[in-house]
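Lecture notes, continued. The same structure-token format from the folding unit now serves as the input rather than the output. Read the line below as a description of shape only.
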């Protein structure tokens, strides 16, 4: 394919899908299980109707009394979602991976991890939504429990 023709095809594809592309940002607060600890974080995503991508960061507090580590995750996720809302609800599933860091006292462990989950976005007013999410994380090298579960609710703004 010639260079001008390739450029034409690329521009046509970008313009053709740009009207269906959307982005959003989420700030969240929730808890992890085993034992229950607070988690907070944020995510930014882009979607093309059904398929989307998301960068997410979360920070789980340390529980010093029972020697449970703090956990920070930075994940890149693939989202598959309903292309439209049903009664102001948009459902999605997600899978991804990235880096994590555990800290317990002065010991620090960094490694690779993955996650899978599901959730929904509830439209409130205009671009403002509430996002409810459940994830299971799998950590390759870990201090205590290899699998972590997280539930959160957050404020989501589409743009």
């Amino acid at each position: 394919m010639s260079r001008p023709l390739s450029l034409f095809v690329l521009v046509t594809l970008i313009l053709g899908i740009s009207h269906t592309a959307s982005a959003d940002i989420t700030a969240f607060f929730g808890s992890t299980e085993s034992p229950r600890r607070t988690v907070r974080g944020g995510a930014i995503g882009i979607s093309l109707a059904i398929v989307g991508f998301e960068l997410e960061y979360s920070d789980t507090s340390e529980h010093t009394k029972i020697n449970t580590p703090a956990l920070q995750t930075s994940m890149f996720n693939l989202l598959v979602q309903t292309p439209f809302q049903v009664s102001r609800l948009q459902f999605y599933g997600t899978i991804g991976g990235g880096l994590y860091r555990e800290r317990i006292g002065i010991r620090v462990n960094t490694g690779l991890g993955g996650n899978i989950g599901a959730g929904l976005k509830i439209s409130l007013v205009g671009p403002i939504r509430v996002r409810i999410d459940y994830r299971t994380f799998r950590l390759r090298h870990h201090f205590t429990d290899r699998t972590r579960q997280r539930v959160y609710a957050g404020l989501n703004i589409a743009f």
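Point for the exam: DSSP finds one helix and eight strands in the chain.
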